[in-house]
């Protein structure tokens, strides 16, 4: 099982991969699994992580008191989320904006923009994300 210490070079270091021109087939079992957030944890599966991008899934669970949500996050690179299941609410505090992203929708977040994802539904929500060039 891959370890969190492999972030930035998983499944192989970016420059080395491009030099070797090697292809990789991955599935969820091959991903780096991690819990993100100290106060409001969510599940991340990182499928690829190198010098130019991060790619994986995020799951925001349901249950407990009030809606489950990510902690505020910000990235040095642009982020794109694609909702696989459920309706996600993205909150952008600097702009005081909320955006409902339904199953099959995309959400683009520019670099250096603070955000959080909120799950107001009664089901786990899941999205694929890519962040480039920096996590």
Radius of gyration: 15 Å
Low-confidence stretches: none
Biggest sheet descriptor: 6 strands, antiparallel
Number of domains: 1
The total of helices stands at 1
Q: CA-to-CA gap between the ends?
A: 22 Å
CATH superfamily heading: Jelly Rolls
Instruction: Give the class from helix and strand content and strand pairing.
Output: mainly beta
Mean pLDDT: 93
Kindly provide the name of the CATH class: Mainly Beta
Organism: Breznakia pachnodae
InterPro entries: Cupin_2 (IPR013096), RmlC-like_jellyroll (IPR014710), RmlC_Cupin_sf (IPR011051)
Protein name: Mannose-6-phosphate isomerase-like protein (Cupin superfamily)
Domain Cupin type-2: 69-130
Your description of this structure?
This protein is mainly β and 135 residues long. It has a single domain, classed as Jelly Rolls (Sandwich). It has a six-stranded antiparallel sheet, with no helix packed on it. The mean pLDDT is 93.
């Amino acid at each position: 099982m891959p370890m969190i210490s492999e972030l930035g070079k998983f499944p192989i270091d970016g420059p080395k991969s491009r030099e070797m021109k090697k292809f990789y087939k991955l599935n969820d079992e091959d991903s780096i699994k991690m819990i993100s957030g100290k106060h409001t944890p969510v599940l991340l599966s990182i499928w690829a992580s190198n010098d130019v991008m991060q790619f994986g899934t995020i799951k925001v669970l349901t249950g407990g008191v009030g809606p489950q949500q990510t902690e505020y996050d910000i990235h040095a690179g642009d982020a794109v989320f694609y909702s696989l299941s459920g309706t996600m609410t993205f909150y952008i505090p600097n702009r005081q904006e909320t955006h409902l992203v339904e199953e099959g929708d995309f959400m683009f977040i520019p670099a250096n923009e603070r955000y959080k994802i909120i799950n107001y539904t009664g089901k786990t929500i899941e999205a694929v994300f890519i962040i480039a060039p920096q996590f």
